[in-house]
Amino acid sequence: MIEVKNVKKYYKIAEREKGIIASFKHLFSRKYKVKKAVDDISFSIKEGEIVGFIGPNGAGKSTTIKMLSGILYPDAGEVMIDGFIPYKQRKEYVKNIGVVFGQKSQLNWDLPLIESFELLKYIYKIPEEKYQKNLKKFTELLDMQEFINQPVRQLSLGQRMRGDIVAALLHSPKIVFFDEPTIGLDVVAKEKIRNFIRYMNETEKTTMIFTTHDMQDIEKVCNRLIIIDKGTKIYDGGVEEIKNKYVSSKNIQMLLEDGTKENYAFNVNEVSMNVVMEKLFSRFSIKDISIQEPEIDEIIRDIYEGGISA
Amino acid sequence: MRVYMEFAVKKFQNRLTYRLEFFMGIINTIITVVVFCSIYKALYAGTDSVDGITFQMVATNFVISLGLSNAFSFDEMFLQNKLHDGNITSELLKPVNFKFRMLWENIGEGVFKIIFYFVPAVVFCSFFMELSAPKDAVSVVLMGMSVILGYFVLWQISFIVQTWCFWLFSVWGIMTIKNVIVNILAGSMIPIWFMPPLLRKVVSYTPFEAIYFTPIRIYLGELTGSEILYSMTIQIFWIMVLYLIGDFFWKKGIRKLVVQGG
Questions:
Q1: Architecture field, domain A2-241
Q2: Is the overall model pTM greater than 0.95, yes or no?
């Protein structure tokens, strides 16, 4: 479905030194620095997959999404999506995709939500029957009945985001790109959106790419994870695998008979569980015990910080 | 085509949501017209006609050209704002021609302002000022057609300047200069009749005369028969030329955007 081969995108950034003299110099001769936003990334995604795309700020996620959605030319490499080269056949290609930008809205600020949807019906030439069916289904799934007739400017962020998601999916696109769809939302709204995305993927077999900073999104929604940093891909594989691969440290939390708490952290590759337990049982009188694995957040943080190489 | 009509309709509805703006729009149009007419009334100071142009004609000129220029104003920072806040990307992700979408939204707004600002303002002014009656019903229809063509000329000029936002940080300054030039050379500040012959000659070679002055002359019956046909052809000629220029900048700009990433 999606084939990305050795894609590169470099930006030229004008560099400027501090001070007035440098500012004047800048007027006449400019020095440029090349920033490698995306540096040789390849991957392929099959139909019906939900892929989480993560990386620290400035890693090149948005640039990649832009190239995949056809609004940016790669400097090198090839992108082929559903038989289209997105940036060359943009007008034809965009009929088949939906894009949600968490930070921006494509809805008409002054008009009720439903009016924006109506307009999309014409933009994508959605047959009336299909439009009504989709609209009904989506509004039910996302609980939108009560605010669908309100002007968008009066909606809360969570409501607006749900509106934006519906707007991107009304024409039943084959591929949907979500760029931080849960940013700034509360737990309930996030949950609703995640469930909806899962549901759409399961029932419609829609292929989805998902960028986020919220690892909960990834754990609950995605079945595959691509991590990029400094423009290169550093991990590509299952969400569970990354845990198994990197979770070697465990933390044991104990509640003792005298009411105090005790923590013990160790690495399963170095010490066996038996040895640890024996030691602990002999040293403390334990009332309750729990063993914790590090959260996926921590794993990702370690990867970003270069603690673990993927 | 249907989809672009929808853009116009939505924009029309959009305008209806702001009630205060609606009333201010009418008042604004009336004030501008009254101010300009009063100045010229003083300048005429009881004289019937200057160079064969009566005060009535001047007043009619102002009602039409100022009224229309108010009605035809639209958000000329549209493209720049879309570019600066990054929403241009969402626009490019839609299977519609963004340029036509802009045009049709502006048409929706223009139709709204014609109905709710221009017509009330003209009716209001006609109670207080003696305006020239149109030559006949046909010339009103022909003027209507010419007004539409004039709108396209005006829109294309604005669009060309708007597309420069791909290269400039802000087009506001240039836009302001453009608007002054249009207001003066299109005759909505000083009627084109009163321009020095040389300037008038120069203006006749520019698209500015084709904006308001052609419809006004048709309305007043200054042009007849083949002359009307000729001036409308000139209008269409300018629309095509300006379209090609605008399209050139637009394509270059979009190309720059998708290659350099805005």
A1: 3-Layer(aba) Sandwich (3.40)
A2: no
